[in-house]
Amino acid sequence: MDAGFTPEQDEIRRTLRELLRRNRDAERERAAPHGPDGHDRRLWTGLAAGLGLPGLALPEAYGGVGCSATELALACEETGRTPFPSPLLATGVLVAPLVLALGTDAQRADLLPRIASGRLTAALAVPGARLATALALTGGNRGDWAGGGRAGGVQARRADGGWRLYGEADQVLDGHSADLLVVAAHAGGFARSRTLLFLVPGEAAGVVRVRLTALDPSRPRARVQLRDVPAQLLGEDGADVPGALAAVGNTAAAALAAESVGAADGILARTVEHVGRREQFGRPIGSFQAVKHRLADVYVQVQAARSAAYYAAWATARAEPVGGLALAQALQALRVAAAEGIQLHGGLGFTWEHEAHLYFKRAAGDELLFGPVHRLRDHAAGSAGLFEGEVAV
């Protein structure tokens, strides 16, 4: 493994950091998550046109940049520093690779160029609050999480030569505003029980979307109800949907780990800057040994998480399922960095006017959506067979 970055990778990081810095507007950033889109659409389309951000890991044949998961992870690290509300995670990290892996030639040609250009946003709708299970991050995803033939979840049935969906998906990331929904549904009853993915326009008749109150406003979520909605099957009926979801989950975990590292690094930098300015007893509080020790511990955790995230992004090309472990490490580092940041900012860190609390909400919200940390580690340990053959005492 070559731990160095190529000039192209360094350029992606530098360019994106500069674009985000130049377009930063604190007032607009605070208002964007509460708007109808949940993000700044003008900034998003600008990043899509100027840097090809949503199509960074898509092939050039579909209008993408043609980079790998490593470049996507580096981009996510930069967007995490602010933290930046955007449809990158839902559209570019979760849905786009699913369409690329499972879609027919016609579906890829229709959807991927629009995703790469930023003209189409998408969301992955999973029954219940089971996104981490569907992506095989906290458990096996070949069970009945999509409905299992019983009441609940989302059910798919054949009708009039097509498919119709009925059910509900909760905690859908960007589900309230996405132009396209990729819905995981159960089909076949007990005889041919299987999970399939379907394409549903966000404004289709019978789709009811309700935006939910989220701990982290920069990660807007929605409850999506499907009331006998016509849908188009993504790919073929015999496709290995759980396998595709697990592969996407591994890559998404690596990208999300890098984003969490960027956020942890962002709050750490702000905290270091603050303790260098804030004075107590006639000297900066950053000169106190206790403060130095606390920040040094945070720094060590952030660097360890960064190493894990970079390795996970590199390992995706070799199908090594280490994304969940890297995500656990990064989420823990972000949680610690955000908590220390709030404490070392004093009362200022708890106010709405300061950014410190946004990082803490990002850490807690992502752990609720993709974790928690102990389940990520438990599933990784079980998959690796670390505790097989142990004798109970």
TrEMBL record:
GO MF annotation: an example: flavin adenine dinucleotide binding
Stored Gene3D superfamilies: Acyl-CoA dehydrogenase/oxidase, N-terminal domain, Butyryl-CoA Dehydrogenase, subunit A, domain 2, Butyryl-CoA Dehydrogenase, subunit A, domain 3
Cofactor(s) required, per the database record: FAD
Record's keyword annotation contains Aminoacyl-tRNA synthetase: no
Keywords of this entry: FAD, Flavoprotein, Oxidoreductase
Acyl-CoA dehydrogenase/oxidase N-terminal domain mapped to chain residues: 6-118
Family label: Belongs to the acyl-CoA dehydrogenase family.
Annotated protein name in UniProt: Acyl-CoA dehydrogenase
UniProt source species: Streptomyces cadmiisoli
Source taxonomy: Bacteria, Bacillati, Actinomycetota, Actinomycetes, Kitasatosporales
